[in-house]
Design a protein that fits this description.
The complex is a heterodimer.
Chain A: E1 11-18, E2 21-28, H1 33-40, E3 59-62, E4 65-68, E5 81-83, H2 96-104, H3 113-126, H4 132-139, H5 150-164
Helix pairs in contact in A: 2-5
Chain B: H1 15-20, E1 35-41, E2 47-53, H2 55-58, E3 63-68, E4 92-93, E5 99-105, H3 108-116, E6 119-124, H4 131-135, E7 152-160, H5 163-168, E8 172-180, E9 192-198, E10 201-206, H6 211-222, E11 229-233, H7 248-260, E12 264-267, H8 270-276, E13 283-291, E14 297-307, H9 315-324, H10 326-329, E15 335-342, H11 358-375, H12 379-385, E16 392-393, E17 399-400, H13 405-416, E18 427-437, E19 452-459, E20 462-467, H14 476-488, E21 495-499, H15 516-543, E22 552-553, E23 556-557, E24 560-561, H16 562-573, E25 576-582, E26 602-613, E27 620-630, H17 637-656, E28 662-663, E29 666-667, E30 685-691, H18 713-725, E31 728-729, E32 731-732, H19 736-747, E33 753-754, E34 768-770
Parallel strand pairs in B: 1-12, 7-34, 8-32, 10-11, 14-15, 20-21, 27-30, 31-33
Antiparallel strand pairs in B: 1-5, 2-4, 2-6, 3-5, 7-15, 8-13, 9-10, 9-12, 13-14, 16-17, 18-26, 19-20, 19-25, 22-23, 23-24, 26-27, 28-29
Helix pairs in contact in B: 6-7, 11-12, 11-18, 14-15, 15-16, 17-18
Chain lengths: ~170, ~775
């Protein structure tokens, strides 16, 4: 099992717009967005499961669209709006998806949760009341080993109902 | 009995941390000056190491330390009888991925390059890659220097009751051979550990399921007293049994931290996780059962051969488990079990959800289906006729207390419409049942100490519960909080939890064998009741009324708020602490090997799978799964449902697609894309029924939920394939290729079956004959045996 890694040669100053905050970083050009978020910006809410674009765990939003941060180089997305799980809540008020995931037990170990939350957010922005099959299709690239996906489907549906309905949301708990 | 918290579907106490990215997993930690560690691993499945030259690696700028096996020569292993692993191997490698050397460097890429620069000279040995090869004389040499003959690791032979007599009085005797392919846990989080060395003390944060056992292994290999080592469970990204062994990387980072004086972190790559493994054993099984003409079992003889991989891991226990729980679901009056585990040059197998029992469950459920088919009986009726009864003891001395098999079966039968299903080719339903332990009744290191301990501190209205249990996502922290809150009349969010930290929490043996709710739950219950008594006494004294008139609940103790009551009690008694512990009853039978299988209580499950099977392509589409699970009592039904649904999911993955297989010593598909696991699109709707039997020993009557419901799913899939197409797939996973081959055989008039044709000759020793216990359980003296 050889670790075929080349030494970094090139470094660039990259300006990233993450969760509404602009940061300039000096980065080796090959360092992935996933690594930069976690290691340089300490936004460890974004997790990794494979670092090969296979499991969906590291999903973030770039201009509102889900991207696998392990396959994105920061230089590709300079100036575009990046959203990570840390940017979902408004202050201490949870996003309706986070609220529903918490209430319905859709996060067990929680490791795949940030990526699934962001993919779900993107779905609900383009399709406010998705069917269960539409949710399945949208989240098919995100693996979860704990839940059997059942409570995740329930939670995305609940969040979509609450976001679509003018009724006040239930409080925490 | 009415509860205010128990039985309520409450969110997990750490749910917000998990949905906001605030939970800190081991790899999220990056203290200042952290060094990154990578491990050099063997490219050969079997080789002697002739030399290791690390000089070039040491010269690379940024490399701070390089270690090899000579730095960590002491062997360790999870079981006391198989201390056969080294953190780094310097004499011999036994599977591709066996760790050889480790580098700590200022960044991970430098560490990886340095690993590449280490020159290792090998003498390549002939690898042993199958059960048959392991049973034969090795071409070069044995994999391990213990066990035998040849590459046999462990042999077991036990006989309970009059087996030959049982077969003699049977009206029908049938034999079958089954094979269950190995598969792996595939937790979303790769294993990770980070160590520091400060003030002469090692602290390790790890993704482990068992801080206590990692603590033991570190102390042994690092040659430090346990009080100089602290192991803390970081937020956990999924285990399923795969993080239940102490691992090389945990020991390596601790050693490197001691050498460098800096924090050292190692996170395995996904490929390394596949090779770290400790997953489901591939098991070949032979079973022979005698029945009367109405389908009552008269005797069973079960043989297993486990492909263990290169090291012991939990393998001795796994071997016993392949024979232990058959009797816990079916009343088998005479039973013979012969088990064998072999070493092969593959990553070691160990415990995965259901540990050693899904394989035999698959075998006996299908075997009984076939017997019912032979006799022209309805398989459900025939199985039901043999169901074990509550409050009995099995022929191999397992103590069965509460048992909801009948009710579970009734629930899935009614809901699925199994009895009235419309029969048409290509559509089928299958039924199966199972049972699992609520915690192993004996500890890995045999001793008389409690298996779980909880301390509670109350201080000016604040409540903290301390327990060594590790929440691996199943919600064990939430269960502890619910129990303490229930007893103290509070809400779970009022309880602060400190768990899985060997310095600050009393012992709990860890998250394995479905033991935490039952054992830590009972310990928490005892500690909470003691604390409640102190608060009641103080409140009663102040009120000038007898203690039994103080009403507890809704945040109040009699006339006082909880905070006021706690102040009164602290003034009266001083520091408010209480402790509880749980020691399982001594119920193991009087024979060697009896420690595997006994549990203070067994959960029961029943499952119906409905599927469509394509007669041309063999493709399966699962339409729906109905599952009923006897959990004793659901302390939190939301979390129990989550465990049941997750178990069904993982069972379907094993039944349909998951395989850990090798070619020339290399994993065939060590990536998440190629190792197929079910996605959102593959999962059917699941209808879950929770059956509550109120177990006499469980906390509030609770039993396990995390493993048992996986077990019946796999045989139910294969039974449904037979229902749909008339072919038996006697091998897991049940893939389209196998179905097509069985259909081809069916078309040619051959036996309509896909599966192993034979069971090898294994030199099992003479059976140890064990007298069965009295069948009726003497509840008055449950702990006396």
């Amino acid at each position: 099992m050889r670790n075929e890694v080349e030494r970094p040669v090139d470094r660039h100053v990259v300006a990233l717009q993450v969760n509404g905050e602009r940061t300039e970083l000096l980065l080796p050009v090959h360092k992935t967005l996933l690594e930069v978020l976690r290691e340089d910006m300490h936004l460890t809410g974004t997790k990794h499961g494979c670092e090969l674009g296979e499991c969906g765990t590291c999903t973030v939003l770039v201009d509102g669209k889900p991207e696998l941060s392990c396959l994105v180089l920061p230089i590709q997305i300079e100036g575009r709006a990046i959203t990570t799980v840390e940017g979902l809540a408004s202050g201490s008020e949870l996003h309706p998806l986070q609220q529903a995931f918490a209430e319905l037990g859709a996060a067990q170990c929680g490791y795949c949760t940030p990526g699934i939350l962001l993919a779900s957010k993107s779905l609900l922005e383009s399709n406010g009341r998705p069917s269960r099959d539409e949710i399945r299709e949208a989240l098919a690239g995100n693996l979860c080993r704990c839940t059997g996906y059942a409570k995740i489907l329930d939670a995305v549906q609940l969040a979509s109902e609450r976001m679509a309905s003018p009724l006040p949301r239930r409080g925490e708990g | 009995m009415s509860f205010s918290i128990i039985g309520k579907p409450l969110p997990k106490v750490d749910a917000v941390a998990r949905v906001t990215g605030q939970a800190i997993y081991a790899d999220d930690m990056l203290p200042p000056r952290t060094l990154h560690c990578r491990i050099l691993r063997s490219p050969h499945p079997h080789a002697r190491i002739l030399s290791i030259d690390t000089s070039a690696a040491r010269r690379i700028p940024g490399v701070v330390a390089v270690i090899t096996g000579a730095d960590l020569p002491i062997k360790f292993g999870i079981l006391p009888v198989t201390q056969d692993e080294r953190a780094l191997e310097h004499e011999k490698v036994r599977y591709v991925g066996d760790p050889i050397a480790a580098v700590a460097a200022t960044d991970e890429e430098i560490a990886a390059s340095a690993c590449d620069a280490i020159a290792v000279e090998y003498e390549v040995l002939d690898p042993v890659m199958s059960i048959d090869a392991a049973l034969a004389t090795p071409k070069d040499e044995r994999i391990q220097d213990y066990g035998g003959p040849n590459n046999i690791h462990k042999l077991v032979a036990l006989e309970f009751g009059d087996v030959e007599g049982g077969f003699a009085r049977a009206d029908h005797v049938r034999e079958d051979v089954f094979f269950f392919q190995g598969n792996t846990h595939l937790p979303m989080e790769q294993h990770s550990a980070i160590a520091t060395y400060v003030d002469g003390k090692v602290t390790l944060w790890s993704s482990t399921q068992v801080v206590h056992y990692v603590h033991r292994a570190l102390a042994k290999v690092l040659e430090l007293p346990m009080n100089r080592i602290r192991v803390v469970g970081a937020a956990h990204g999924g285990g399923f049994g795969g993080k239940t062994d102490p691992f090389a990387h945990e020991i390596v980072v601790a050693k490197l931290a001691m050498m460098t004086g800096r924090p050292v972190k190692c996170t395995l790559t996904r490929e390394e996780v596949f090779y770290a493994h400790r997953g489901r054993h591939p098991v070949l099984m032979w079973v022979r059962t005698g029945v009367t003409k109405d389908g009552r079992i008269t005797a069973m003889h079960f043989k297993s051969a486990l492909d263990g991989g290169a090291y012991g891991s939990y393998g001795v226990a796994s071997t016993f488990y392949t024979g232990a729980l058959q009797t816990v679901t079916y009343d088998i009056p005479a039973y013979r079990f012969e088990g064998c585990r072999v070493f092969t040059n593959k990553p070691p197998c160990g415990p995965k959800r259901g540990h050693g029992t899904p394989q035999p469950r698959f075998a006996i459920e299908l075997h009984l289906e076939k017997i019912a088919h032979d006799l022209g009986l309805d398989p459900v009726d025939m199985k039901r006729r043999n169901f074990v009864k509550p409050m009995t003891r099995t022929v191999n001395w397992m103590r069965v207390t509460s048992c909801g098999l009948e009710e579970c079966t009734a629930r899935v039968m009614d809901a699925s419409g199994f009895r009235t299903r419309k029969r048409r080719p290509g559509r089928g339903m299958g039924f199966a049942i199972s049972s699992y332990l609520s915690g192993a009744g004996t500890a890995i290191y045999w001793n008389d100490m409690p298996h779980s301990e909880v301390q509670i501190k109350v201080d000016r209205g604040g409540v903290t519960a301390f327990c060594g249990a590790m929440d691996i996502g199943q919600g064990s922290d939430s269960v502890l909080a619910a129990i303490v809150a229930e007893e103290l009349g509070l809400q779970p969010k009022d309880i602060r939890l400190v768990t899985a930290d060997t310095d600050t929490t009393p012992i709990d043996l860890g998250s394995y064998s479905s033991r935490v709710t039952f054992m830590a739950g009972n310990a928490a219950l005892e500690a909470a009741r003691k604390m409640r008594a102190l608060l009641v006494e103080a409140a009663a004294a102040k009120m000038g009324r007898p203690a039994d008139s103080v009403r507890v609940g809704g945040g109040r103790f009699g006339d006082f708020s909880f905070e006021e009551a706690s102040v009164l009690a602290e003034a009266r008694f001083g520091t408010l602490t209480s402790a509880g512990s749980y020691t399982p009853p001594k119920i193991a039978g009087p024979y060697k090997g009896s420690g595997v299988g006994p549990s203070p209580a067994y959960s029961y499950s029943a499952c119906v799978v409905d599927l469509d099977a394509d007669q041309r392509t063999g493709l399966l589409h699962i339409n729906k799964v109905w599952i009923a699970h006897d959990v004793g009592r659901a302390i939190n039904p939301l979390l129990v449902e989550g465990q049941v649904e997750g178990s069904v999911y993982m069972g379907l993955g094993e039944a349909l697609m998951e395989e850990q297989t090798f070619r020339k010593g290399l994993h065939k598909w060590p990536s998440m894309l190629e190792y197929k696991s079910p996605t959102f699109l593959d999962m059917p709707e699941i209808e879950t029924f929770l059956v509550e039997t109120n177990d006499p020993e469980g906390p509030y009557g609770a039993k396990e939920a995390g493993q048992g419901p996986l077990l019946p799913v796999i045989p139910a899939v294969s039974a449904a394939v037979f229902d749909a197409l008339g072919v038996w797939i006697d091998e897991v996973p049940v893939t389209p290729e196998k179905i097509v081959e069985a259909l081809r055989r069916q078309g040619k008039g051959e036996p309509p079956r896909y599966g192993p044709s034979r069971f090898p000759d294994i030199p099992y020793p003479k059976c140890i004959r064990v007298e069965p216990p009295p069948k009726e359980l003497d509840l008055a003296a449950p702990a006396a045996i």
